[in-house]
């Protein structure tokens, strides 16, 4: 069920009404669990069994970890949880990619082999809910959280519908305790949640899906375009993916807020970053902190020798690239971000940031945005050949970009100006806030105005969210 569908616009209010009418915490949680599975099964019902399997495995593993004080026995349960969950993820997401590349490698060595292939559809959100469940297993092993005894409460933590298929990837220490509290009906929460959801819909429908009309036309038909089109599409795509994914996160956070739940912030104005390292402190925060806590720090983090620290950074971002998809383009994308952060660490930029004057910050901001845009080419390209063609074209085959409709470009420019103004207010702390005005009329006129703008200028028949494929 897509957030930008009429189905969801009917589903969500009904869920909220029933949730607040139910008298007890137990009945509310069971209802939310059923609603969450219904939400997920609208894509492919059979894959709800994968969600249930991951939930059951990590639930039982955590109970086993909590049962034994001996570290070696705890490790058995944790390793079992990791192997089974990552095994499911590998089978459905990476097996065909690995088999294809293994066969290619062996053929280079003169060994012909036909690897079996599976025709599985990629289950929506599998990377998100498996990482959330594994984070819980690891936290129980580390003693950061207690093993949840109630299976239904834990199952709701893994499957909570607002953030089930594309995050934020929640931690058990934040979300799980919230299912043990009764959340009363709150006008303040409802208005706050609706404001977040509306801004999310603006980012998705008005910005991202409008950008997609041009970006998809170029990236999906590389042979029909020149360097000018490649350059323009490569400058637009960063805003498409930001509007798409940040928009989803805000709708998820807002939907949860309406019901009284607080999800973690997932984006913090990433394109204001002046280093790539800072960019990753602001972009997909729930994933970047997950990799930091469960991959980078266990590898030794920055508490090791400089060469080993560089290795840890590279390993973390290569894994991050692989997490995004079974394609060499994602591996290259992750590697680029790893290399750039190693260079920044070597130059000491992150330590010097506080000493930069306005002009130095401006130059570093431009530089960071340019290298992030260049890396996004690999993320968006359908394959490595297309990515290389696009990058070469931007530097050696510049021409007048093909623009199908000028009005679309004007609408994109207007949307970007609105987003830039809104995020500048938040970034620099300007005391301007229409949505939080003390005047009731202004707050509600803002809501009516943004709804009208979305209906008039949004792409209402847009596709699914980009991160659903991960």
Describe this structure in words.
The protein contains 18 helices and no strands. The protein has two domains: 19-182, no CATH class; 188-274 and 356-457, no CATH class. Helices cover 69% and strands 0% of the residues. It is mainly α and 470 residues long.
Q: How is the biggest beta sheet arranged?
A: none
How many individual β-strands?
Answer: 0
**What quaternary form is this?**
single chain
Task: List low-confidence stretches.
Answer: none
Shape call? globular
Report the C-alpha radius of gyration, rounded: 23 Å
Task: Give the tags.
2 domains; single chain; 470 residues; 69% helix; mainly alpha
List the helices and strands and how they pair.
Elements: H1 6-21, H2 25-41, H3 48-67, H4 71-108, H5 126-142, H6 151-159, H7 172-175, H8 187-219, H9 227-258, H10 276-282, H11 285-296, H12 306-324, H13 328-347, H14 349-352, H15 358-380, H16 384-396, H17 406-428, H18 440-457
């Amino acid at each position: 069920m897509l957030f930008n569908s009429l189905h969801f616009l009917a589903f969500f209010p009904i869920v909220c009404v029933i949730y607040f009418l139910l008298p007890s915490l137990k009945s509310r949680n069971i209802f939310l669990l059923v609603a969450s599975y219904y939400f997920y099964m609208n894509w492919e019902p059979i894959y709800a069994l994968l969600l249930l399997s991951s939930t059951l495995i990590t639930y039982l593993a955590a109970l086993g970890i909590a049962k034994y004080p001996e570290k070696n026995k705890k490790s058995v349960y944790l390793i079992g949880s990791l192997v089974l969950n990552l095994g499911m993820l590998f089978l459905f997401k990476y097996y065909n990619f690995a088999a294809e590349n293994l066969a290619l490698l062996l053929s280079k060595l003169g060994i012909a082999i036909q690897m079996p292939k599976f025709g599985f559809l990629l289950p929506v959100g599998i990377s998100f809910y498996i990482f959330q469940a594994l984070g819980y297993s690891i936290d129980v092993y580390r003693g950061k959280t207690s093993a949840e005894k109630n299976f239904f409460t834990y199952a709701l933590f893994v499957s909570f519908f607002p953030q089930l298929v594309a995050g934020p990837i929640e931690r058990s220490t934040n979300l799980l305790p919230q299912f043990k509290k009764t959340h009363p009906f709150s006008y303040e929460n409802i208005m706050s949640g609706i404001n977040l959801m509306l801004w999310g819909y603006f980012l998705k429908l008005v910005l991202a899906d409008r950008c997609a009309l041009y970006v998809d036309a170029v990236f999906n038909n590389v042979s029909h375009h020149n360097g000018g089109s490649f350059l323009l599409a490569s400058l637009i795509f960063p805003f498409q993916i930001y509007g798409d994914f940040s928009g989803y996160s805000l709708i998820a956070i807002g939907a949860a807020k309406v019901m009284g739940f607080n999800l973690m912030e997932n984006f913090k104005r990433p394109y204001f970053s002046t280093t790539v390292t800072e960019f990753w402190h602001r972009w997909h925060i729930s994933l970047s902190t997950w990799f930091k806590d469960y991959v980078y720090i266990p590898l030794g983090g920055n508490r090791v020798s400089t060469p080993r620290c560089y290795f840890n950074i590279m390993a973390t971002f290569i894994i991050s690239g692989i997490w995004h998809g079974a394609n060499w383009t994602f591996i290259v994308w992750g590697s680029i971000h790893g290399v750039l952060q190693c260079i920044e660490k070597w130059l000491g930029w992150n330590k010097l940031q506080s000493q930069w004057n306005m002009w130095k910050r401006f130059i570093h901001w431009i530089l960071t945005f340019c290298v992030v845009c260049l890396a996004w080419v690999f993320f968006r390209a359908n394959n490595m050949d297309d990515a290389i063609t696009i990058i070469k074209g931007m530097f050696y085959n510049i021409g007048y970009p093909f623009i199908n409709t000028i009005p679309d470009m004007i609408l994109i420019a207007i949307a970007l100006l609105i987003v830039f103004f809104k995020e500048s207010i938040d970034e620099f702390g300007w005391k301007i806030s229409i949505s939080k005005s003390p005047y009731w009329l202004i707050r509600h006129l803002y809501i009516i105005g943004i709804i009208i703008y979305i209906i008039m200028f949004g792409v209402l028949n847009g596709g699914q969210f980009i991160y659903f494929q991960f």
